[in-house]
Design goal:
The protein is mainly alpha-helical. The protein has 9 helices and 2 strands, in the order H-H-H-E-E-H-H-H-H-H-H. The protein has a two-stranded antiparallel ribbon.
Length: 246
């Protein structure tokens, strides 16, 4: 039989282990995880329609406003699977991974493919992550500059991560078209992708502006128009940098 000291030690260890597991469970059921679950709450129908919206926003005939729903204590926006205009992280994450893999394959099939190594794949990942970060910081700055003294815009950071990550959808299509159709195909895809991404962001931020600021002076309206134009134009160098594979 075990001695009383051994039983006490085992009991103490069991309590520590139980506390450790409980802490980990609390982490995975905390606010951060619940927020992330919202952005990954998608289905196949949403993904297909969202991809069509991103690749050709001109054919979108419906409203760009998000759909609220009543919840205890107020309201919240419906998750992506129930609202096409809701931002999601599933498409950016998948497009990010596809871009990194496709870039590696294209680099491997190039003239210097023999020099390809794991470190090159890591370079693509870090380069893509850096562009994503730059895009989010740019959108964050735009939100600040689009705000007015009368009404400050409030856009969650995860929403900005979603909007910034959609650029990988266009860039992935851009490099794949360039791989199969050559330089002319690449530059046509670059121009089209930049235009579509710019239109999508302008439409999205206009919706945010109109939903959160009821009144705007002529001076603020002019400043906001210039800011939206800058967001649109900034997509070209970012997409070109991501598409430049050597």
């Amino acid at each position: 039989s075990f001695s009383p000291l051994a039983k006490t030690a085992v009991a103490a260890y069991g309590e520590k282990a139980q506390q450790f597991v409980q802490n980990r469970m609390n982490f995975f059921s905390g606010p951060l995880t619940k927020n992330l679950q919202y952005y990954f709450n998608v289905n196949t129908n949403y993904v297909l329609k969202k991809m069509k919206l991103l690749l050709c926003p001109f054919i979108h005939k419906g409203s760009w406003t998000r759909m609220p729903e009543q919840v205890p204590g107020g309201f919240q926006f419906k998750p992506p699977r129930h609202d096409l205009n809701a931002p999601d992280l599933y498409i950016p994450a998948m497009a990010f991974n596809t871009y990194c893999v496709a870039s590696s394959i294209i680099s491997l099939s190039g003239t210097n493919g023999s020099a390809f190594g794991p470190e090159k794949f890591g370079n693509f990942v870090w380069s893509a992550f850096l562009i994503w970060l730059v895009e989010v910081l740019m959108l964050r700055t735009a939100v600040y500059l689009l705000s007015s003294p009368q009404a400050a815009l409030g856009v969650p950071l995860f929403d900005l991560c979603c909007y910034g990550g959609y650029v990988f959808v266009h860039v992935t299509a851009q490099i794949l078209i360039g791989f199969f159709a050559g330089h002319w195909g690449y530059y046509i895809a670059l121009a089209w992708g930049t235009l579509c991404m710019g239109v999508f962001l302008v439409k999205t931020f206009k919706r945010i502006l109109y939903s959160q600021t009821r009144q705007a002076s002529k001076q603020n309206s002019k400043r906001q128009s210039y800011m939206l134009l800058a967001i649109s134009l900034a997509q070209l160098p970012l997409a070109y940098w991501l598409g430049y594979i050597k």
